[in-house]
Amino acid sequence: MTVRSASRSSYDDSVFVNCPFDAEYEPLFHAIVFAVHDCGYVARCALETDDSGDVRIEKILAIVDQCKFGIHDISRTELNGHNLPRFNMPLELGLFLGAKRFGGGKRKKIALILDTER
């Protein structure tokens, strides 16, 4: 099986991965990316570019636009050390669902949402 990079992937085989990017979640992130690639798809996420000059939300919107599929783990919205919840994963899920709703129907989007409760 050939592995395609983000630059050579198509809309139909691109999967937006929206999850925490910390050390505790890293083994799960690697498992998700492995499963996506093993199924013949290309995993895409905000980590694929490291240009700090890019506006993060614009980078995420561009990736969402280029992906038919999305895997969104919103199970980690608990309070942090400052008593504030992590809202970035639900925000990125909202962007994906908005793209699905308002994308004009020409390009279908399919989401898998992972949470702590059914």
Describe this structure in words.
The chain has helices at residues 26-38, 56-65, 88-102, and strands spanning 14-18, 42-44, 69-73, 110-114. By secondary structure, it is of the alpha/beta class. The protein has a 4-stranded parallel beta sheet with strand order 2-1-3-4. The N and C termini lie far apart (34 Å). The relative contact order is 0.19. The model has no long low-confidence stretch (mean pLDDT 87).
List keywords for this structure.
118 residues, 4-stranded parallel sheet, 32% helix, 15% strand, Rossmann fold, alpha/beta
Outline of this structure?
This protein has 118 residues and is of the alpha/beta class. Helix content is 32%, strand content 15%.
Shape: globular
Mean pLDDT: 87
Order of secondary-structure elements:
EHEHEHE
Rg, rounded, reads: 14 Å
Count of strand segments: 4
Which CATH top level class fits? Alpha Beta
State the helix count: 3
* Oligomeric nature of the chains: single chain
| Strand order of the biggest β-sheet | 2-1-3-4
Helix amount, in percent? 25-40%
- Looking at the structure, the CATH topology is Rossmann fold
Q: List low-pLDDT spans.
A: none
Structural class given helices, strands, pairing?
alpha/beta
The figure for the number of domains is 1
- Major sheet attributes: 4 strands, parallel
CATH architecture: 3-Layer(aba) Sandwich
Q: What share of residues are in beta strands?
A: 15-25%
List the topology elements.
Layout: E1 14-18, H1 26-38, E2 42-44, H2 56-65, E3 69-73, H3 88-102, E4 110-114
Parallel strand pairs: 1-2, 1-3, 3-4
Helix pairs in contact: 2-3
